[in-house]
Amino acid sequence: MAKVNALIRLMRPKNVVLAAITVPLGALFGLEGSLNSQQGLMVTIQILAVLTFMGAGNAMNDIKDAVIDAQAHPQRPIPSGQVTSEEARNFVIVLWALSISFMSYGVWQLASEGMQWWPLLSIYIVAAVLMVTYDLGPETKSKGLIGNISISLMVAAVILYGASSVDANSQLVFWIAGVVFFTNLAREIIKDCQDILADEGERSTLPMKIGVEQARMLAYTLIIGGLVCLYVPYWKGPFEFGQLLLQAPAILVLITLNGPLFNGEDVTASSRIRAAMLLGLLGFIVTMYL
To answer: What is the DSSP code (8-state) at residue 264?
Structure first.
């Protein structure tokens, strides 16, 4: 049981659960309404595809970062000895096999219903390339900002993936994906500020190149970009401008990040950005059903 728990921790359940939530949300936002039973089944299968995809990516990241984590995060499963690198690699293979199977079934479902299947497949392939090149190949993870962008694109793509699982293409989905991309990119940069000492000699991150103060300033600028994407659906539609009040919690959390960032409180800032993302998604949900 301890081994199973350690393997689950490799998947980073908190991140995986967030991904699982955004798949049906992407479908709902894309349809601007509700799902019927058939669409619900299609979305459920793609939730499993994303869960195993994200889990595989997180486990790959832990395998790659075992040396760094021994100093920065010694409690992680591999550096703590709860899971061997070989066991982790075998686990990754199983997760990838499951994810590809779920995605393939979704493509078949869409094609059999006469719906567009290629967006689902295309988004998955692009995300898979970004995932593999993050830890392998050119190893964008070690190249700082490029790796941050890759991760953020993958996270934002989940919203689009959810919409494509039911052949939905509302513009609302793209604005919400923009919110997720910009805020997650800011969070990745802040996390690099937090880990700057542990990453030394292993990665060439943005804070190393331009300094932590300027990196934090860039992160806050990206947060403003996320706020703009959040604002547009209430300005241009499909929502009413007055409904923007429902996003007040997320907006307040984001605009008050300048204090923690100025004081170098990277852990606090990173946690608040995650909370703001959840609040923002919740705000969109409430708006959609009012």
So the answer is: T
